[in-house]
Fold Mth938-like domain-containing protein.
Amino acid sequence: MKLQPDKYDVPSINGYGPGWIAIDGQKHHGSVVVSSQGEQFDWGATRFEDLNEGHFAQLAALDCEVVVFGSGLRNRFPPAAWLRPLMERRIGLETMDTQAACRTYNILAGEGRKVAAALLLEDAQAPSP
């Protein structure tokens, strides 16, 4: 799906589909983190089961007030232990499927919020547990 957001002065997600996400027109074929403050990096997980507290510690190091977590093809909630680094820094976490997280990030970033999106990009053909 191609998204047509208003013109933003922050990184925006302008498309996604099976196996890819486009940030500012550049396609990514793996899980990625993007923030309204300009940070962007590969997240190093291809399945929800690959995630751990270390992945969320990376998010806690970002200068943001809320993280939008795209948990893949369906909505899955991380264990509370993984969220400890975020809670210690008083950073909120919203969990939803990755497509919804892309749209939500754009809205919050466009409003000028300090937000990051952690987007788990799973293979659409892979079976869900």
